[in-house]
Amino acid sequence: MAAGMYLEHYLDSIENLPFELQRNFNLMRDLDQRTEDLKGQIDSLAKEYTSNARTLSSEQKLSILRQIQQSYSKCKEFGDDKVQLAMQTYEMVDKHIRRLDTDLARFEADLKEKQIESTDYDSTSSKGKKSDTRQKEKKVAKTRSKVKSSDEDGSPKSAQKKVKLLQPGEFNTPTTNFGNVHPSDVLDMPVDPNEPTYCLCHQVSYGEMIGCDNTDCSIEWFHFACVGLTTKPRGKWYCPRCSQDRKRK
Question: Residue 71's CB: how many other CB atoms inside 10 A?
Answer without folding.
Answer: 20
